[in-house]
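Dear U.,

For the methods section draft, I wanted the exact inputs and outputs in one place so we can describe them consistently. I've listed the two proteins in the order they'll appear in the manuscript figures. Please don't edit the token lines directly; just add comments below if something needs changing.

First protein:
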Amino acid sequence: MQKSLTTFILAFVAGLLGAWAYQQLFSLDLSLAEHQSSNTELLSHQVNNFTESNAAPPSRTPANTPVSFVEASERSTESVVFIKNFSGTDYRRYSIFDYFFGPQGGSPQQVSTGSGVIFSEDGYIITNNHVVEDAETLEVIHHKKTYKAQLIGTDPNTDIAVLKIDAGGLPAIKKGSSRDLEIGEWVIAVGNPFNLTSTVTAGIVSAKERQINILGGDFPLESFIQTDAAINPGNSGGALVNIKGELVGINTAILSRTGTYTGYGFAVPVDIAAKIANDLINFGEVQKAIPGVGTEEITPEIAEKMGIESLDGVIVNHIIRNGAAEKAGMEIGDVIIGIDDTNIKGKGSFEEVLSYHYPGDQVTLHYLRDNQKKSADITLQNLHGGTGVIEKAFYSSGLLGAKLEAVNTVDKDRYEIDYGVKITALTRGYLSELGLGNGFILTEVNGEPAEDPDEIGTFLEEYSGRLVLEGITPRGRVFRQSYSVR
């Protein structure tokens, strides 16, 4: 009985204590709520006073506001197309019977795919050169409709190509500025990876003016935008856009040991791509402007050896004969640190700034000689040493299996020749059977100078008998060979 009474008393005391604690907590909650309400009223009052004072609201988005890519995705995906590259049978894989009776067991057709960006509403499309390379037929798919595409032109130096489809009123992408793009800025990669159409991935601009030494051509121009937005096979030729949905680059390459995305992708800046595309559309040829110098990056070793105080700029390692730089008095060893008002950090920025110009433009090169600042006003030249527009001129022959074009100023200087006809776009045909390769320069045919591509092409197509060819290989080796042709 006594034990029961003790238990009852303890329970009663515990209940009283619990009620007291509940009351205290309830009062605390009310105090906090009232305090918050008071602060809210104060904040509201401050906002009202702020508004009434007609002062401008803060321009920055609060740090906790999430970035949305919805609007940019909607604007850009409409302007990205799917490209199919159809290439035919490579007859070199088959026997001699296939030449007479056709490929036995059918003709397997190779199909590769990529992306492209609608450049203008009348059907011009920008993509990568490697997306359309070796194509026999090209198709563009947009909104589930398939178009036959015409190849307008290519530029291996920047890996840019332009296609044209017969359509109007297309949603041309809005172009931004890659020069104004900042490191750390959000970007979206839009394309068709692994045949998955209209795919978007997001990342930031990791770096600019990157050189990764992957491009071909005689004058490779690498000044890539580096991004960690996922770019995979099939994204090539697609759009890199900012958060406004404006085009800032053409997705081109990935840094990978597996062939798929593992961290970084690279895009051709839109300011370069647009200039190349306009040149191909208007002239059929890129209007490259050259200052008449060869350059290289400044490494710590070179800087120490030459006593250069900074690693910014590029070193002149070659002067082209009769070029603009030679006429201005520049020398090997000069360090170019600026073009007009733009500082030059390296070879990427040097080539990028020049890419915006046309032959005939006048620029001021700022450079160091023995660490003393100097300047030279020069007129940029075209690849033939003049200052006018160059229109694409070549002799194309299915029988020869190549295009023939006159050598440019740079090749003349490089190989110390005054003329020549260069073999380009080599495929299966007469010239490859003679053992000549891409980039081979014919200097003499049967003892006569090789100067005009049309004359040389027509002669080779029609000639039979003893044929003697002289020329220079891409590595600079002098070549002379005699053939008996029928």
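Second protein (the one for the lower panel):
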Amino acid sequence: MKLMLLKGVFLAQKVLLNVSFLFFRLFGPKQKEGVVIGIEEIASILYSAGGALKNAKTVNFYKNPYYDEKYDYYFGQYKVCRALVHLISPVVLGYLMVRYKTFIYISGNGYLMRHLDGRAYEFSKLKKHGCEVICYFTGSDIRSFKRLNTFGKAHNMDVITTYQPISHKGIDSEFKENIRKMLGESADKYASAIFNPSTDQMAYIERECHPFLYFADERKIRYLPEKFKQEKKVVLHAPSSPIIKGTPIVRAVIKQLQEEGYDFEYVELIGVPNTQVMAELAKAHIVLNEFYALVPGVFGVEAMMNNAVLLTSADRQLEPTLFEGANEAWVVTPYWQLYGNLKEALECPMELLQVQADKGTQWVERYCTYDFSAKYLNNVIEQLDD
């Protein structure tokens, strides 16, 4: 029954897309140009990428509870649009196909349902009508549970997919794994470029991928020497998903160190707006990020933007798409080393903590800014036209 319903909706979407394209082509420009980025906000990537690229248009069909940004086409701010998203989005795609040359897809969702073909029909239509497709994957949208679990066993270590089925029941089902498989295969076949960390987001993608780019606002990157003149250290942990970020281990380690008499302030933030997280990061000396991942994630970059010492499991030896100097920018901390590394950081003089924090902030300035990522992304787009 569910499969029949999906097929019915997908058929309706294809009809709406084709009718919309034919209609808007009557009034559209003779030549396509410009970039469209969509269709949902993930950790501020959609908004940031739109701001980093000149003349880019952002499209958002969903509302993210942690971010309150503005988008060029923000259908997600209206309840009726969210309710009818499967009928509205194909019409919007038909309109955009007439006008824009390059389509950047953030995460796994598309303008048409991905459940039956992994966006293959959608991508093929774009390519047929002279558009370029760029896929920018963000994590669980593309990460293969089968492949990453196999990697974890081979390296005798727990990984994100070890625990994700606990907090996200059914995410490892055969049905959802098959969707991720189709997404990878469609990207392989149709995308002109793919951004995806090859190990952390191990996927059904055989081509070489570009590294995951961060879009840190240069105006918000800051050195905060005054906080390192305080006596008591502040340790911060702000998991978006506690189970897969290692929060149970973090709490156990914090409790053990407190029992041993270490005097520090521990701040834990869950489910709060990003503005509050950023305010607390400015006060933190040590940030505990995530401990099963192989990239630092947006929160890790935000920590280094705020001149904090970052402890995280990201490791360039396992994730080769990380930029040079990554393992020196933070303290590489797989989950089994959290107690020892945090204990060492608490015992470390403030002036040495500041040296490590500065390394992280410098790395963000070099590889994670709007300017750097915009140049990288623009270069990829320009090469598509060569």
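Candidate sentences for the figure legend, describing the second protein: The CA atoms of residues 80 and 88 lie 10 Å apart. The chain has a mean pLDDT of 94.

Thanks,
Y.
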